[in-house]
Amino acid sequence: MERVPLEKKVLSENDRIAADLRGRFANDGTLVLNFISSPGSGKTLFLERTLEALPKDLRVAVLTGDIQTDNDARRLARSDFRCNKSPRRAHAIWTPA
User: How far is Cα 56 from Cα 81, in angstroms, rounded to an integer?
Assistant: First the structure.
């Protein structure tokens, strides 16, 4: 088997996009949190409870990234926040209604 050397990271485009987004969020003073854990660990429940407790005039966005189902997006859509469908792997973004 012949080995082919890789000259750059396979996910270098993702890294570039992520760095750009981090810079934009920092410049705008936007707090960004990323919750990653195993299925069933309580992430969606945590977000539901957090959304319930936040002031309704606060600007909030939630991106769900489940590539298998839109279950989390549908659960979170029951909050008082407006749901906007988003392209790519994210199912929805919520902002105050």
Answer: 8
Q: What gap in Å lies between CA 33 and CA 54, rounded to an integer?
A: 15
Measured between alpha carbons, how far is 73 from 20 in angstroms, rounded to an integer?
26
Q: Is the pTM of this model over 0.70?
A: no
Q: How many helices (H) and strands (E) does the chain have?
A: 3, 2
Q: Is residue 61 within 8 Å of 96, Cβ to Cβ?
A: no
Per-residue pLDDT of the chain (97 residues; tens, 9 = 90+): 888 776 667 778 888 888 998 999 899 888 888 888 988 899 989 988 988 888 877 778 787 877 788 888 888 877 766 555 554 444 444 444 4
Tokens standing for residue 88:
């790519």
Specify whether the CB–CB gap between 95 and 84 falls below 8 A: yes
The maximal CA–CA distance of the chain, rounded, in angstroms, is 60
